[in-house]
Amino acid sequence: MNPPDRLDLDAVIADRGIEVLICCGSGGVGKTTTSAALALRAAERGRRVVCLTIDPARRLAQSLGLGELDNTPRPVTGIDTSAGGSLDAMMLDMKRTFDEVVLAHSTPEKAQQILANPFYEALSTSFSGTQEYMAMEKLGQLHAEARSGGRWDLIVVDTPPARSALDFLDAPEHLSRLLDGRILKLLLAPAKGPFRLMGVGMSMVTNALSKILGAQVLADVQTFVAAFETLFGGFGERARRTRAALAGPQTSFLVVASPTRDALREATYFVERLREERMPLAGVVINRVHSSELDLSAGRAEAIAEDLDPATHQAQIHALRRHAARMTEIDTERRLLDRFRAVAAGVPMAYVPDQGSDVTSTDDLRAIRFAEWAG
């Protein structure tokens, strides 16, 4: 059995009780590579996996040897399926996902009204929080399909490189509050029902909004809200169900970082917020950890280089100074990791040695080693 601070990722992906594995972290720390490597590893060990990336940078497609990814899961070829596993991959298309939600939860007539509305076009493509909300919608769809005996038993999620993991978790609530909000609902029928007695006041509000937004924009919003009214409750309810599933034992979160000051500071923030929200944190993966097989300190390497004659030992001097620079980097990483382990006491951790080059294929992904300790 591993000590509490050592993360056994093979045990995580082998646990059939874990149905959703979410990799979160700041940008540039190898989060997409980690997601792809774990998805491939799980598939080749018998899990039926779908890997969903919410990051639009398209690195997942590249690492899995696919030309492109879209909102439809695509099978990854060239993997070992002898253990009965499989791997599909997809990239969130928030506009298409929003369209699918509208088509699935409204009548054809209402759906056409919504899809053709200019305000809906803006909401579904550029409104703040829409990407994260649609990620939750898509994750909810995939999880429901998996639980009903669908073609997957593990969903690996590569989240956007947002500062807070809660951007991904809280966006559904923010968007559903907007769509359920009173101001939008008032736009439905400001002169009806209980608002009839407030007709003059509502007229003033409508006139003010018309001046700010423009008469056509306001009309588009009113038309959209009228058509969208029947979907309000469904958005909020689905968001709450998916949020509850993410807090349950069938989900595990991994925080991904690299051994640099800024990345570990961000990882500390992720760990603390996930703990505060009582989310099931499996542990932290530290990518790109450097090491050396040569037991020679930076100071000793520099001293030896100083004693050599540059006229006859130029190559040796260059190699020694390169080694000294590497050992200085390793010493800095170790100090930073020691501090991080102290701050994140009790959180299991795994360490990925620096690959020395970009990961661009499934063979590169297989070569990634998840060590349980970094000295």
UniProtKB/TrEMBL annotation:
Organism domain of life: Bacteria
Domain named ArsA/GET3 Anion-transporting ATPase-like: residues: 19-291
One of the record's GO molecular function terms: ATP binding
UniProt-listed Pfam families: ArsA_ATPase (PF02374)
Full protein name: Anion-transporting ArsA/GET3 family ATPase
Source species of the chain: Naumannella cuiyingiana
